[in-house]
Amino acid sequence: MTDKEKDTTIVSPWDEHNRQLVSHVRPLDWKNPKPAARYNLVVIGAGTAGLVCAAGAAGMGAKVALVERHLLGGDCLNVGCVPSKALIKAARAAAAVRDAGEFGVHVPDGVTVDFGQVMQRMRRLRASIALNDSAKRFSDLGIDVFIGQGRFVDANTVDVDGQRLVFKKAVIATGARAAAPPIEGLNKIDYLTNETVFSLTGLPGRLAVIGAGPIGCEMAQAFARFGSEVFLLETMHGILAREDHDASKIVLESMLKDGVKFLCCGKQLKLAKAEGGKIRLTVESHGKMYDEVFDQILVAVGRAPNVENLGLEAAGVAFSRKGVQVNDKLQTSKPHIYAAGDICSPYQFTHAADFMARIVIRNALFFGRAKTSALTIPWCTYTEPEIAHVGLYEKQAGEQGIEIDTFSRKLEEVDRAILEGRTNGLVRVHVRKGTDKIVGATIVASNAGDMISEITLAITQNLGLKQIADTIHPYPTQAEAIRQIGDAYNRKRLTPLAKSLFARLMAWRR
Length: 510
What we know:
Blueprint: H1 3-6, H2 16-25, E1 39-44, H3 48-59, E2 64-68, H4 74-79, H5 81-98, H6 115-129, H7 135-140, E3 144-147, E4 150-154, E5 157-160, E6 163-172, E7 176-178, E8 206-210, H8 214-226, E9 229-233, H9 245-257, E10 261-263, E11 266-273, E12 279-285, E13 288-294, E14 296-299, E15 303-305, H10 312-315, E16 319-320, E17 323-324, E18 337-339, H11 350-365, E19 379-381, E20 386-391, H12 394-399, E21 404-410, H13 415-420, E22 426-432, E23 438-445, H14 448-460, H15 465-469, H16 480-493, H17 496-509
Parallel strand pairs: 1-2, 1-6, 2-3, 6-18, 8-9, 8-14, 9-10
Antiparallel strand pairs: 4-5, 5-6, 7-15, 11-12, 12-13, 16-17, 19-20, 20-23, 21-22, 22-23
Helix pairs in contact: 2-6, 3-11, 5-6, 5-8
């Protein structure tokens, strides 16, 4: 591998698929263009937020420069959504074969997972998707693509390896990275993060996952289904702490069925090197000490914004360890410089970065007044079952003084879920007390990420449970559970007094 090839540090192994990936998102022969005299918009960072900003602005006729120091596509394409979902799908396939006997389908030789082939498939699919985020594609859109470290020289100029880009407006979209938590011994071992776990070519026999948030839970379950012995460690009680307790409990039960060993309320966590390149982990969980040796440790705790080496001080842009500071219109302390995505948002999701970028385009180029507070942002954790949410949780509603009524439907009461053997789930919707106005919802189901969109649409378009109840849903589907929630609301409107009056009316009309 050449020195220039080595610069693509997280792209490993250097096989045909990763070479194809790099040819799209960091071409080794790329030559930066001659800068224009002045740009309408300079975008620093070519992850989701940066790419959407650049493409949207160029499509509106703006002269745009896009700067990326590493790989176009950012975390989502290279070390996030795309590779993780490829692994999760393979893990689901393994679990489907394992559980096939429940449906009368018997696989004599059981489940054999070729982990090398799983990872090769992921790399192949990632490389094929990378074309959408390629330097050539964005160059063909009329955007000047610069590969190198972008740094503000002042409030109107960005330097990229000695080339000066003068701008009217700018967007900081440099994202965030995996953070190293303060764990004793962590700095003395080699460990995995979401940025390196997708470079594995061999399945770890024993894997410890530190952190029971979305990334930790998704990867712990997937690797357990591949055949690793997985320990999931969390300092708090339970998994997915921000989610509805009943919902996260269902997911935990599924993970335990898959063989994940869960150690919560962990204390005195220590890591150290062990013989044969392995790692020793000691931790106390519920009064019991564990001393275990693992092949790999995956750290899935915390994110740190990429604010370093940007020259933010020179531009007069305020920032902290939490990221770049922005107002509701995504303006920084310099109103003509904006920020979008993980660098400034508490909602670190690809789709949130996408819609924040759309706000930037409106506000920066067209005198818009779009606000992030107006966004309704759903999210999903892609465990099995998935857990998806939008709007307020019950606790949040109470903290904001909003009285609510809650309607729940277990999937064990839904025909399609029963027929598919997918009854470990629920649909839960919160409405303002005495009304059908939806303020929040949680769904736990195999395809919860798809199902939550119906609730999100209802919230954004000010539709209530009455309208959902009036909407015909195909039978049998799991989404019918949402319509049944609407029916439950209608039944609640039928008070004992109303029911008595109707009974008298029906008697009179007989």
